[in-house]
């Protein structure tokens, strides 16, 4: 069961935690953290890597069969994986035990205690340390270090916080045609306007406090991946982009296609968003003019597409991005993934019902309609009660437009209808339901409702207004999975009792000194003199993210 260099440990110092086919030893002194909510992340990643493996293998074998070279060599179908930020090694252990065809996994962490934990869990699960190779190193240095070696087929980034520092290294360490899996948990930056400066320097774009903020978070991360890849003349294809609980998880395939890189500007853009009513308009940063045959001409776009004030309610507009405005998913990939999860044994994925629900909603999403409204937002803007979602969906479908939900937000309305049509439908609904007496003249709601409709609106029930995922009662949107759920504490080294006691004494001494400074300040204040504590002024540092 063990290699010759098997780690030595006392089983009584650990508790066993089972997930999938893996059992990890979780230390009682909080050496690493374990978050049960993240099992969905790992389940989805296993299913996604299996799907990518099957597609990549089929493509390799197809090229082999078509080749007419007399000395052609059958391609190997095994693949390599890098987990750059591994902590306990649970993810790598599950990959090794649950995904067939892995040649080896380089399981890296920069903390010695974490590397010992990886070795311990690899040994405890009966895996070879040649298959799961524990590695001590800085993730960025490790990834850049493999530029001159054999690149990895799969690179997995699952950091605590932002993946931004690791994105360029991942691009440099993955093979063309390979898969990059990225997690970002810093949604306080990506999905709000509290720290736009932090979002811009990390991801190269501005976030918005909008109903579609979680979709924008996905698009900002994809754009960051795309920009890093384009510098190497590589193109990023989003296979599946998921907004999950308190984080985003994105699966992209890296292609060596310089011609595709030229199309990126037309799939990157800004989003103009009304602060009051939520009306949004996208503006591509590039344009493509098709010529004869397969020729194309790449142009600078015209603009802006909107005025400074919202055309519907007259309120100010704000600008989000630049961000990716192309497809978030490859529907063929998601379709195969959904099929694989659906036919899998229930014991394979502990979160299978939720996986099926999210994948089905993703399959129903419109590919070519970035961003979305929500029912509550539309009704709030006109001070109206909320009708059934199917009523608004029916009106959009009856008007000749497409509509779907978004997996990023419950009661979302993703449509290719222009804003004028959406608000005509809301005006027709208010006329039917009754106008609120609290709407003041000259208010944004008043300006919306005073506009003359130009769309013939019919609320007759449409057969496609209720999505299949809802009709077959899948788990479409996850409720809170447990009490006080969310990100756990950051991974730390094992606590040494002697070091803990020394730190306690240091803190106590510091408190005594600060009390002395406070007494001196009080005495100085009594005498009318302004006192400054040197120790305080030196210890204060500017806040950083």
From TrEMBL:
Any one Pfam family match given in the protein's UniProt record, by short name: TRM
Catalytic activity line of the entry: guanosine(26) in tRNA + 2 S-adenosyl-L-methionine = N(2)-dimethylguanosine(26) in tRNA + 2 S-adenosyl-L-homocysteine + 2 H(+)
Organism in which the protein naturally occurs: Coemansia asiatica
Keywords: Methyltransferase, RNA-binding, S-adenosyl-L-methionine, Transferase, tRNA processing, tRNA-binding
UniProt region (Disordered), positions on chain: 482-545
SUPFAM superfamilies on file: S-adenosyl-L-methionine-dependent methyltransferases
Protein's UniProt name: tRNA (guanine(26)-N(2))-dimethyltransferase
EC id: 2.1.1.216
Bias-annotated ranges (Low complexity): 509-537
């Amino acid at each position: 069961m063990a290699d010759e260099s098997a780690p030595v440990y006392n089983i009584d110092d650990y508790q066993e935690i089972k997930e999938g086919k893996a059992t990890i030893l979780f230390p009682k002194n909080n050496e690493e953290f374990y978050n049960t909510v993240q099992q969905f992340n790992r389940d989805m990643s296993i299913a996604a890597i299996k799907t990518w493996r099957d597609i990549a293998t089929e493509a390799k074998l197809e090229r082999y069969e078509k080749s007419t070279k007399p000395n052609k060599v059958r391609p190997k179908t095994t693949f390599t994986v890098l987990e750059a930020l591994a902590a306990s090694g649970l993810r790598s252990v599950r990959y090794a035990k649950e995904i067939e065809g892995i040649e080896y996994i380089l399981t890296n962490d920069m903390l010695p205690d974490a590397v010992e934990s990886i070795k311990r869990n690899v040994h405890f699960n009966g895996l070879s340390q040649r298959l799961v190779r524990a590695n001590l190193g800085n993730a960025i240095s490790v990834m850049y270090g493999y530029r001159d070696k054999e690149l990895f087929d799969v690179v997995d980034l699952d950091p605590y916080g932002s993946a931004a520092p690791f994105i360029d290294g991942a691009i440099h360490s993955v093979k063309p045609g390979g898969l990059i899996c990225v997690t970002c948990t810093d949604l306080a930056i990506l999905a709000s306007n509290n720290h736009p400066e932090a979002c811009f320097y990390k991801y190269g774009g501005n976030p918005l406090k909008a109903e579609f903020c979680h979709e924008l978070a996905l698009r900002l991360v994809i754009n960051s991946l795309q920009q890093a890849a384009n510098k190497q003349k590589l193109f990023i294809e989003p296979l599946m982009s998921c907004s999950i609980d308190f984080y985003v998880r994105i699966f992209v395939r890296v292609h060596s296609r310089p011609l595709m890189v030229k199309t990126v500007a037309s799939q990157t853009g800004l989003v103009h968003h009304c602060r009051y009513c939520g009306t949004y308009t996208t503006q591509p940063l590039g344009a493509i003019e098709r010529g004869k045959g397969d020729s194309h001409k790449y142009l600078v776009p015209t603009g802006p597409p909107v005025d400074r004030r919202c055309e519907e309610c007259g309120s100010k507009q704000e600008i989000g991005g630049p961000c990716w405005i192309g497809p978030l998913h490859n529907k063929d990939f998601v379709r195969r993934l959904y099929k694989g999860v659906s036919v899998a044994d229930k014991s394979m994925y502990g979160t299978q019902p939720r996986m099926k629900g999210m994948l089905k909603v993703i399959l129903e999403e419109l590919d070519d309609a970035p961003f979305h409204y929500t029912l509550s937002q539309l009704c709030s803007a006109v001070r109206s009660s909320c009708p059934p979602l199917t009523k608004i969906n029916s009106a959009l479908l009856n008007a000749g437009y497409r509509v779907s939900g978004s997996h990023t937000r419950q009661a979302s309305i993703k449509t290719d209808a222009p804003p004028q049509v959406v608000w005509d439908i809301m005006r027709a609904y208010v006329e039917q339901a009754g106008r609120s007496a609290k709407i003041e003249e000259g208010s944004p709601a008043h300006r919306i409702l005073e506009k003359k409709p130009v769309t013939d609106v019919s609320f007759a029930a449409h057969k496609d207004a209720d999505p299949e995922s809802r009709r077959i009662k899948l788990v479409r949107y996850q409720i809170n999975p447990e009490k006080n759920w969310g990100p756990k504490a950051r991974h730390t080294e094992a606590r040494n009792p002697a070091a803990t006691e020394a730190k306690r004494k240091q803190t106590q001494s510091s408190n005594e000194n600060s009390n002395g400074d406070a007494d001196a300040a009080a005495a100085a204040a009594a005498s009318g003199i302004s006192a400054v504590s040197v120790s305080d002024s030196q210890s204060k540092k500017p806040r950083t993210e």
